[in-house]
Design goal:
Radius of gyration: 22 Å
CATH architecture: 7 Propeller
CATH topology: Methylamine Dehydrogenase, Chain H
Length: 506
């Protein structure tokens, strides 16, 4: 079940003028921001998680200092319109596209926020669209897949599937691929999709958005009978299928690393989420080293072969690489001994065989799949929400603690120790002042050229600069609560996110 969230887009630019006014029934436009650093090339965000591989990475830098500004905000004239909690805006060639629960797809100017067009599809739109070759592609819960012109919103073609389409399309090589709750993966020619090129029947509903290896011309997807598939685009047949543990793939997506020849799948566990979080938390606590007190920072650190090492930099808690390594070995052993607790898989692209067991425990609320990683394939670096007793991103005073942002090696899965060093004599503040992670709420990651953005179940959209590993805040919404975490994307030096949640936030 999707949570309904009030549609609100905030754009944080790398520099700009103006101030934020939220008017409930009108578009607010501010002077066009002046960019401090000119972009040498267009770095759009044209589909879910930026690219067919769903890496979540865009080689576009956001501001590295100062305060983010908000030049405009927008929502439809219908104040009750809402979008699915994890639907992203997509941006290409100056157009931003987003759909809503009323079944309307909207096109906006990505710099000014001015609405350019709207297209009523007749049924709720639950997922992210794709902009490809001048067209906007999307599906709706009535089972239609639709292509409209990105310039004016006029229909180019549509096709009726056998059940609702609640996932995002993936587009590459002049083709666009959709999944449907009728259990099929559909392939269309992007220019004329009135008849599918082919379809593959997985035998169970598909709510997961597909990902692709462009190098191997292969689609990856999971169906709700917990089968993960690799489908060859040329033969239309499964290269492999693999049964995974869990209760569903739900509405997320696989993530493909072309360089490392692997694909990540995340699953919703069959166990109750309270059981998952409690038991996993006890396991982390039982393995902590003796002189480490969670949520505290001591003036003097005790070191030794069997001890943790803490370094007090301002209010920051640090563990060592050895501490991280020991903890991850315990997590992997725990998962291997309890396979029903595995919620992340790293599989070989060619065979579907496990490459390694990620040391990633369950986080998230009831009925949702844990968040997929984001990866910079060229740098062999990924980021993931994980659980560690040495967490730096929760204060230890809230429910479901030990939640952290982890930087990992894609090839090995090893999660590295993060530090928050002194810079120019300035002490680090508590990282959770910029954003706060909670173990039983969802978070979503986005990776820019110089930072990883973290949308969380609180009120903040924050992040970590990848070069210094210092946290920062992008913007704070009014109110608080569990749902409606910001969904952020990065395009052309700007950060876009939709926020607000079913009366919890104003």
């Amino acid at each position: 079940m999707y949570r309904a969230v009030k549609l609100l887009f905030l754009v944080f630019t790398i520099a700009g003028i103006g101030f934020y006014i939220h008017h409930h029934f009108s578009l607010v436009i501010f002077p066009k921001p002046q960019l401090v650093e000119a972009q040498t090339q267009t770095t759009d965000w044209p589909q879910l998680q930026h690219d067919p591989q769903r890496t979540g990475y865009n080689n576009s830098a956001i501001r590295s200092s100062g305060t983010f500004t908000t030049p405009w905000s927008w929502h439809p004239a219908n104040a009750d319109t809402s979008v699915a909690e994890y639907a992203q805006p997509v941006i290409a060639n100056g157009v931003l596209a987003i759909g809503d629960f009323d079944g309307v797809m909207y096109g906006l100017n990505d710099v000014t926020g001015v609405q350019l067009w709207q297209y009523p599809s007749g049924s709720p739109i639950y997922a992210t669209a794709a902009i490809y070759n001048g067209k906007v592609f999307f599906g709706n819960d009535g089972g239609k897949v639709i292509a409209i012109n990105a310039s004016d919103g006029k229909k180019v073609w549509e096709y009726q599937t056998g059940a609702g389409v609640v996932s995002a399309p993936v587009a590459f090589n002049n083709k666009v691929f959709f999944t449907s709750k009728d259990g099929k993966l559909y392939a269309f020619n992007e220019s004329d999709g009135t008849t599918p090129l082919w379809s593959y029947d997985a035998g169970a509903p598909i709510t997961m958005s597909p990902a692709a290896s462009v190098n191997k011309n292969t689609i990856f997807v999971g169906s709700e009978n917990m089968m993960a598939y690799a489908i060859n685009v040329n033969t239309h047949q499964a290269i492999w299928s693999k049964q995974l543990n869990g209760d569903g793939f739900r509405y997320y997506w696989p993530v493909v690393s072309e360089s490392n020849n692997l694909v990540y799948f995340r699953t919703e566990p069959a166990r109750a989420f309270h059981d998952m979080l409690n038991a996993d938390g006890y396991m982390l606590e039982s393995g902590k080293c003796s002189n480490f007190t969670f949520g505290e920072c001591h003036a003097t650190a005790t070191t030794g072969s069997a001890e943790c090492s803490q370094s007090c930099q301002g209010f920051t808690i640090n563990s060592t690489e050895a501490d991280y390594q020991t903890e991850q070995q315990r997590i992997v052993s725990y998962i291997n001994a309890n396979p029903d607790r595995q919620v992340m898989y790293a599989l070989n692209l060619d065979t579907g065989n496990p490459v390694y067991t990620p040391a990633v425990l369950y986080t998230g609320g009831s009925g949702f799949v844990p968040d997929p990683p984001v990866i910079n394939d060229v740098a062999n670096q990924g980021w993931i929400i994980w659980r560690s007793y040495y967490s730096m991103y929760d204060s230890g005073t809230t429910v479901r603690p030990y939640v952290d942002v982890g930087k990992f090696n894609i090839a090995t899965g090893y999660i590295s120790h993060l530090s928050c060093p002194h810079l120019s004599g300035e002490s680090c503040k508590m990282n959770w002042e910029d954003f706060h992670l909670v173990g039983d709420e969802q978070s979503l990651l986005t990776l820019a050229a110089n930072a990883v953005l973290v949308g969380n179940g609180g009120t903040e959209l924050g992040g970590i600069y990848t070069s210094t590993e210092r946290s920062f805040n992008v913007g704070t919404r009014s109110g608080g609560g569990a749902g409606g975490n910001p969904v952020g994307v990065v395009a052309n030096g700007r950060v876009y996110y939709q926020a607000g949640s079913l009366g919890m936030f104003q």
